[in-house]
Amino acid sequence: MITFSNSNSEIPYIKLKQKYNDALNLNQKNIEAISISSYSSESKEVNSRFVNLKFIDNNNFIFFSNYNSPKSREFKEHNQITALLYWNTINTQVRLKATIKKTSNEFNQTYFANRSEQKNALAISSNQSKSIDFFEDVEDNYNKSLKSDNLRECPDYWGGYSFTPYYFEFWEGHKSRLNKRDEYKMQNGCWDHSILQP
Q: Among 20, 62, 63, 91, which residue has the fewest nearby CB atoms (within 10 Å)?
């Protein structure tokens, strides 16, 4: 589930919420899954991964991560990202282009304090994306954290990311490949709408 707050009245945000509700009403699985693509200046590569989109607050899309992870380093090097939602129950994908930044320490702490201890133990104990010899070591670190760490205090290496789109594309799949594509680009403070050919 994605929590919407401070609803944005601009057309692409209204359309996004409508599509979300349509998919939710059809019991879309993993409705909060969003693919985030970032650029590594070091390797000259683009990397993608799915994260859980937790909030859409006005025009801010928010998810959480380890701030020492590869994607976090890439966000710092190059703060422009692309993102993709796909809801198969309504055969719709939403493409986004955006700039990204960290959320505040206060926001992170409040969110972290209200999560389950199990989730927080993993966030504290995992050196995200670092190699390890045995999976049992991951389990050991997790269990140690459950027993000994303050599971209500957000560590400084974990927190949220907020991105604000300047581009939306709504793709709706139809029979015979007559797919509908609506594009919205932010131009001089206004959304410019175009219909794209399939």
A: 91
- If phi over 0 gives left and psi between -120 and 50 gives alpha, with beta otherwise, what is residue 15? alpha
Q: Residue 40's domain spans which residues?
A: 3-115+156-196
Provide the domain count of the chain: 1
pLDDT in tens, 34-46: 999 999 999 999 9
Three-state DSSP at 47 gives strand
pTM value?
0.93
Looking at residue 65, its amino acid is: S
DSSP 143: H
Q: Which two tokens stand for residue 181?
A: 């594509």
Residue carrying structure tokens 């760490």: 149
> Residues 6 or more apart from 154 whose CB is under 8 A from it?
105, 108, 109, 111, 112, 113
Would you say residue 94 lies in a domain? Answer: yes
69: in domain: yes
Nearest residue to 125 (alpha-carbon basis) of 66, 182, 71, 76 = 66
